[in-house]
Amino acid sequence: MYDDIAMHELNPRPGVIINHPQGENLYDGVPKDYTGEHVTAQNLYAVLLGDRKAVKGGSGKVVNSKANDRIFIFYSDHGGPGVLGMPNMPYVYAMEFIDVLKKKHAAKSYKGMVIYVEACESGSIFEGVMPKDLDIYVTTASNAQESSFGTYCPGMDPSPPPEYITCLGDLYSVAWMEDSETHNLKRETISQQYQAVKERTSNFNNYNSGSHVMEYGNTSVKSEKLYLYQGFDPASTNFPPNKLQPDQMGVVNQRDADLLFMWHMYKNAAEGSEKKSEMLKQITETMRHRKHLDASIDMIGVILFGPDKGSRILNSVRARGLPLVDDWQCLKSMVRVFETHCGSLTQYGMKHMRAFANICNSGVSQALMEETSEAACSGNELRQWHPAIRGYSA
Fold first, then answer.
1. Which positions fall inside the Legumain prodomain domain (predicted)?
2. Active-site residue 264, yes or no?
3. What CATH number has the domain spanning 269-390?
């Protein structure tokens, strides 16, 4: 965990983290092996592979699993087509993550693995690239082309405690965690949880405010009991099979959750105060950079493919079962070229990863992308959005 919440100056309850409006403190006793600057893609890979020599910083603890062990992984961050966010650059790219899973399988160091992923377009991490013979079962919060949704936000029902001005969770994570907390996991199967989470994350088939939970990999493990992967709380022994009966929930698009937070900060600041002026400036600058990213991508499409085809080619979605891109190294190269000339993608701009993938799939050279990005973004001051400050996404 990045560990930037509990002691943050804006946390209304210092030392406390909750994920439900009436939730208890979840921070006490949580093991923190890798925090802050040590939460990186490379450390993630090294920890999963049990490679102590490759770990940099942190406790040095790794997943030193054996052939009969079962592994459960929950990954939650922002996302985009083919990428998962990291608090420290670079991001986790799909093919690199899949390669790590293949190495873990080749080492014969687990019996079964279940992975839950919460991120926008999280299905794209596994679509067309996740083998079915690794003894790994994956579910994702969304399919390969849709956002996921935050919930338990201010103004929603239920709403966080009044002193909170941020969302406490997201539909997918809330769904699986609350399902696990209210069931006997020695009785409930992985398949049963998948169905429950799928229904709740869809916001009960309301896909304007919900997403499609997807599954990948080896589905034969779905008949296994959840406790084998998530553990067991003796207090849940006598829980009824259907204790949880949730309703539709209020949501916000994950990519707008930061704006919602900033808006509440602005609204709550005293009139005429320096804080109110500062928040207005921050909102304005964030929106300006968002518009710049969108316009730059549009212009690159026009320059490369013409005004009639640009948008269609950049936004085209491949048939289900095909990977996002044929050459993943090309994708990373195109992202670096863009960020050099146009600034950091940020979590909002991760949505444009599909455009870079389609540029690669269309055979555009790196030299042409350099020339095009420079033309599209000339005259724009990168300021705090410069990758030298933010870091490169790839």
1. 281-377
2. no
3. 1.10.132.130
